[in-house]
């Protein structure tokens, strides 16, 4: 977090209410953060204008500082700009659902075809892919290989048949075989050009797709708005897939998609493997664009369930590094109240890439921890140093809980690690700064 940014937000913190004047500076910082995240300039302008209007209109909310209030408005507006909730795939009322993939060369169309194929297969649908990229001989092989990986048939007709004709034949074949979902891969070019658009339009009218998905590389910078506009005007898109979000781009292109086309992002690609496809959650990307993890919503959620006094007491103990095994138990129970570990862990910055398996493991290990804490004497719970110092005590806890001494040692060192981490986090929260914003 840059010091200038910190100073700007600190000033706002001491105000009573958001006004046109006192949010000017913070809004400039937001504007800069968005431009740094590669959000297109016209989109940024519109965004800043609407946030300014909304922020001024919010008045005083008891217990919420003006700077927090502004961050919330910014975050909410980002989320709604990207479409609010996650949008799913439309299915055809009768016959196969046809998904036409479009986009520039190298953005990840063919990869996304394979990923979608696997996604639908896992949902119990029968899937077929159709190869219409006849310009690079390797493109057909690539799709066939991916089809092999995800065990989905690929329809191809070599490189001498026109793409629209291949698509038409592919669809006919799929109908014959009672296929549920047909995914049509297409050729891209390095830039938007007439030839590509005409070809895509021909493919589109040949198969009358249920979905036309524009595949957009998350690294696409300022030009995302023009790109989306071009594809939408010429071809008409029903949604987009944002790829390569596993890279270090902040994903500002996402904002342009909804703003320019009115169509939502439906999926994000987060890696080269076939499983690396996720539904698009606007709130997660909003946090990423602002670069603040989800610290804010974590705080919000935590405050909902923790009784205020209890929270203050806990905070004091954390600040004084007195956090012990009693607190640990209390915290675990609070966490349980906050909902599944899964939902919670997603809120912690850097922890949002956790698999269901890891979540299940974490929930199990929480139970193991509880069993060990239950075997501690009250004195040991209140003074973890006792356990840290005495192998004899650790052995007794291990025997009492039916765990290994190693597990007990691990738990003890974990508590000390937690003390350190929570101290950092609470310093951040108390400072009221927005970690990472625009940094
Ligand atoms: P196409 O030309 O649009 O069909 O693009 P491809 O599907 O051939 O992908 C181009 C390159 O990007 C390949 O090396 C892919 O492995 C890679 N790629 C595609 N999607 C992703 C993604 O979500 N993350 C990463 N890291 N790489 C991706
Ligand atoms: Mg391709």
Automatic annotation (TrEMBL):
Q: Name one GO molecular function term.
A: GTP binding
Location of region: Disordered: 375-408
State the source organism's domain of life.
Answer: Eukaryota
Is Cytoplasm given among the entry's keywords?
no
Its UniProt entry gives the catalysed reaction(s) as:
GTP + H2O = GDP + phosphate + H(+)
Listed EC numbers: 3.6.5.4
User: Is-annotated flag, keyword Secreted?
Assistant: no
Q: What is the lineage of its organism?
A: Eukaryota, Viridiplantae, Streptophyta, Embryophyta, Marchantiophyta
**Protein name, entry field:** signal-recognition-particle GTPase
Query: Which species does this protein come from?
Result: Marchantia polymorpha subsp. ruderalis
**Family in the record:** Belongs to the GTP-binding SRP family. SRP54 subfamily.
Q: Which GO terms describe its biological process?
A: SRP-dependent cotranslational protein targeting to membrane
Gene Ontology, cellular component aspect = signal recognition particle, endoplasmic reticulum targeting
Annotated SRP54-type proteins GTP-binding domain ranges read 264-277
Principal EC category: hydrolase
List keywords of the entry alphabetically. Answer: GTP-binding, Hydrolase, Nucleotide-binding, Ribonucleoprotein, RNA-binding, Signal recognition particle
């Amino acid at each position: 977090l840059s010091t200038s940014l910190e100073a700007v937000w600190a000033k706002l913190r001491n105000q009573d209410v958001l006004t046109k004047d006192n949010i000017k500076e913070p809004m400039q910082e937001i504007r800069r953060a968005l431009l740094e995240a590669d959000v297109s300039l016209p989109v940024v302008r519109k965004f800043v204008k609407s946030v300014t209007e909304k922020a001024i209109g919010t008045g005083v909310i008891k217990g919420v500082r003006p700077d927090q209030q502004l961050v919330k408005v910014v975050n909410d507006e980002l989320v709604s700009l990207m479409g609010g909730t996650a949008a799913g795939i439309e299915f055809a009322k009768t016959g196969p659902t046809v998904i036409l993939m479009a986009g520039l060369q190298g953005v990840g169309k063919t990869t996304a075809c394979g990923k979608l194929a696997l996604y639908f297969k896992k949902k119990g649908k029968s899937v077929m892919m159709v190869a219409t990229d006849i310009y690079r001989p390797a493109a057909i092989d690539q799709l066939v290989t991916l089809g092999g990986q995800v065990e989905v048939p690929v329809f191809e007709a070599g490189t001498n048949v026109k793409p629209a004709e291949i698509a038409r034949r592919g669809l006919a074949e799929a109908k014959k075989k009672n296929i549920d979902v047909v995914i049509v891969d297409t050729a891209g070019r390095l830039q938007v050009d007439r030839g590509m658009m005409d070809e895509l339009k021909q493919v589109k009218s040949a198969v009358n797709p249920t979905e036309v998905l524009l595949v957009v590389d998350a690294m696409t910078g300022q030009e995302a708005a023009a790109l989306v506009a071009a594809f939408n005007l010429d071809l008409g898109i029903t949604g987009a897939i944002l790829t390569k979000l596993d890279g270090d781009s902040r994903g500002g292109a996402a904002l342009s998609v909804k703003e320019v086309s009115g169509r939502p992002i439906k999926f994000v690609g987060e890696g080269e493997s076939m499983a690396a496809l996720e539904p698009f959650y606007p709130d997660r990307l909003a946090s990423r664009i602002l670069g603040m993890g989800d610290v804010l919503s974590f705080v919000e959620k935590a405050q909902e369930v923790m009784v205020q006094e209890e929270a203050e007491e806990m905070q004091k103990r954390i600040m004084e590094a007195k956090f012990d095994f009693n607190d640990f138990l209390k915290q675990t129970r609070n966490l349980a109240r906050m909902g599944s570990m899964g939902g919670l862990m997603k809120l912690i910055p850097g922890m949002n890439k956790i698999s269901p398996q890891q979540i299940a493991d974490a929930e199990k290990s929480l139970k193991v921890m509880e069993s060990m804490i239950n075997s501690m004497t009250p004195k040991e719970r209140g003074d973890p140093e006792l356990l840290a110092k005495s192998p004899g005590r650790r052995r007794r806890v291990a025997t009492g809980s039916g765990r290994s001494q190693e597990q007990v040692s691990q738990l003890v060192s974990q508590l000390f690690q937690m003390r350190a981490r929570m101290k950092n986090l609470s310093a951040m929260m108390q400072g009221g700064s927005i970690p990472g914003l625009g940094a």
